[in-house]
Amino acid sequence: MTALAVIAKAPVPGRVKTRLCPPCTPVEAAALAEAAIADTLAAVRATGADRRVLILDGDPGAWVGDGIEVIPQRGAGLDERLAGAFEDIGEPTFLVGMDTPQVTPELLAAGLQALESHPAAIGRAHDGGYWAIGLRRPDRRALEGVPMSRDDTAAAQVERLVELGLAPLELPALEDVDDIDSARSVARGAADTAFGRAFAAWERHGVRGMNAPPARVYAHGLERPHPAYRLRLDSGAVRPVPFERWLGAVSPADLEVLERAAGPVLDVGCGPGRHVRALAERGVLALGVDASSAAVRLARSRGTSVFEGSVFDEIPGAGEWRSALLLDGNLGIGGRPEPLLRRVGALLRDGGTILAEVDAPGGFTGRQRARLEGPNLVSRWFAWATVGADGVEQIVADAGMRLRERFCHGGRWFVEVAA
C-alpha cells in the first residue's frame, strides 16, 4: 500500500498566503490558495496510489472534491504536524505541500517510486525549504525538531535523515509560492493551471476577475471568442470551450442530430442559436431557451426565436414539443442531470424525444465542480455533471426514461432518449 498526501490549510481569508498581502487582499490571497490546492489535488488524483490523503488544518469544503480522504492535522509546529501526518497514514507516503501548483503527476509518481528503493525522498524548494518529503516508514525522529520555514530547512532535513540512516533520494527542485514575486514566477511558468489562470485574472481584474459569476465569463467568451477559454473540472481535467464553433454554422455532427429532431423542437441551452436557426431554415418550428442574456441577444440579432430564462421557468408551448435538444454539454449544467431530464421530458408531448450530447465512453460519470477560465477572467466554481456514453443509461433510467440509441459523429457522442 502506498499513499500520496497533501498537507494544507483550508483557504480561509486571513489564514493562508498572508505573505501575498499586500498587494493581494486576504480574499484574493485565499482565492489563489484555493487554486493552488485544486491543482495539487488534481495532480494527486491523476497519480497511481492506494490512498490519496489531505492532511488539513481547518474545515474541508466543496473545494476538496471527490476521491480524497481528509485527516485533520495534529501537533504544534509544522515539524510535529508532518510527523503526525506520517504516523496517521502509517504506510509508505510521499507528502507535498500546497505551495507548488505546478507539480505534475510524473513528479508525484517519481516520489512514490523512490520509496521502493530508498527509505526516504525529498524535493527541495528554491528558497531553501522543501516542497515534498517521503518516508517508507513513519519515524517521528526524522521530523521533530527540524527547523521549518528557513532558508536552511531542506539542508537540515537531509542532515537529519542521513543521521538516522534514511539517506533520501533527491527529486528535482521546484519554486514554491511564498511571496508575490514567486507567485508571479510560478504562475507564468504554469500558465494553464488553475493557479496560473487565477493569478492572470488577479493581475488584470483583481478579485472580480478571479471569482467572477460564470455568466459573466460566458458572456465575455461569446463577445470575444478566443481559443484560450477552458472548462476546468475539479478532477483536474481541462476541456476547451469552443465559442467560435458555437458562434458559427452548424457542423455535420450537428446536422446528424437535427435530422433526428421532429418538430416542433425545443433547444435547451441554445446559446447563440445555431441549432434553432438551422432548423428554421429547414422549415422546422423551433424555440431556443437560454438563461444567458448575452446569448439571447446574439441569437435574436440573428433572427432566432429564443426564450430568455431557465428551462425550469414557465416555458411557452409546454406539453406540445415533440423533440428537445440538450447539446454542447448542457446535460451537465447544474450537476443534476436526472431532474433536468425529467423537467425537459415534462415539456414534451407523449412519445417525445430528447437528443443529448454526452462524453465519449470510458470516462468518468458523476457530479463534479467546474469553472470557466478565459485569457484574463476566471469564474467561481459551480456544480457540474460529467455524463459518459457508457454511464448515461443509468441516469436516463433514474429519470424514468428509456435510452433508445447511442451514436457518434465527428468524434462527438450523442444519445436519443424516449421521454
UniProtKB/TrEMBL annotation:
One matching Pfam family: Methyltransf_25
Keyword Transferase attributed: yes
Alphabetized InterPro entries for the sequence: Methyltransf_25, Nucleotide-diphossugar_trans, SAM-dependent_MTases_sf, Trfase_1_rSAM/seldom-assoc
Domain of life the protein comes from: Bacteria
A GO term, aspect molecular function: transferase activity
Record domain Methyltransferase: where: 265-352
Keywords: Transferase
Protein name: Uncharacterized nucleoside diphosphate sugar transferase SCO3743
Species the sequence originates in: uncultured Solirubrobacteraceae bacterium
